[in-house]
């Protein structure tokens, strides 16, 4: 251990902290909506449960994965772990993670759009698509800022 683990309340007022919290909240909402209401061939309304491989992929491999990692990063920043364990190079990890999360959410959004149009357009699925686009934009903005300002601080 290289530094002191302490509560970092300044995380809530920083731009990166606000983005992380927005990513977590939007990710939680998207995960719930995709799990409860996803386009599939069995129903023309919101189906319950995972109906096919692609819904499971979007739900588990994209939404739940990014939700867990983002939550762990929020906890790490609240405990000031990037400063206490500065030898672990959190900035590179977060730069690569936000880029990966952006690409995963782009893939997930495309899959949901393809399934929506393949199974008949339903208005309830627009919420899932819009929130997926918003979370993709939040991760893309975070990744852009981390790559652009990587040599600062």
From TrEMBL:
<keyword id="KW-0472">Membrane</keyword>
<keyword id="KW-1133">Transmembrane helix</keyword>
<protein>
    <submittedName>
        <fullName>MARVEL domain-containing protein</fullName>
    </submittedName>
</protein>
<dbReference type="GO" id="GO:0016020">
    <property type="term" value="C:membrane"/>
</dbReference>
<feature type="transmembrane region" description="Helical">
    <location>
        <begin position="53"/>
        <end position="75"/>
    </location>
</feature>
<feature type="transmembrane region" description="Helical">
    <location>
        <begin position="21"/>
        <end position="41"/>
    </location>
</feature>
<dbReference type="InterPro" id="IPR050578">
    <property type="entry name" value="MARVEL-CKLF_proteins"/>
</dbReference>
<keyword id="KW-0812">Transmembrane</keyword>
<feature type="transmembrane region" description="Helical">
    <location>
        <begin position="96"/>
        <end position="118"/>
    </location>
</feature>
<dbReference type="Pfam" id="PF01284">
    <property type="entry name" value="MARVEL"/>
</dbReference>
<feature type="transmembrane region" description="Helical">
    <location>
        <begin position="124"/>
        <end position="141"/>
    </location>
</feature>
<dbReference type="InterPro" id="IPR008253">
    <property type="entry name" value="Marvel"/>
</dbReference>
<feature type="domain" description="MARVEL">
    <location>
        <begin position="11"/>
        <end position="151"/>
    </location>
</feature>
């Amino acid at each position: 251990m290289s530094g002191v683990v302490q509560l970092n309340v300044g995380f809530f007022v920083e731009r990166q902290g606000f983005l992380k919290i927005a990513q977590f909240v939007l990710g939680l909402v998207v995960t719930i909506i995709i799990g409860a209401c996803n386009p599939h061939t069995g129903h023309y309304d919101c189906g319950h449960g995972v109906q096919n491989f692609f819904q499971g992929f979007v739900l588990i491999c994209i939404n739940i994965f990014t939700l867990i990692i983002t939550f762990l990063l929020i906890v790490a920043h609240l405990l000031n772990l990037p400063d206490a364990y500065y030898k672990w190079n959190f900035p590179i990890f977060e730069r690569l993670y936000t880029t990966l999360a952006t690409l995963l959410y782009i893939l997930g959004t495309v899959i949901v759009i393809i399934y929506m149009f393949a199974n008949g357009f339903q208005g309830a699925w627009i919420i899932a698509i819009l929130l997926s686009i918003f979370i993709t934009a939040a991760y893309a903005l975070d990744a852009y800022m981390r790559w652009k300002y990587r040599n600062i601080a």
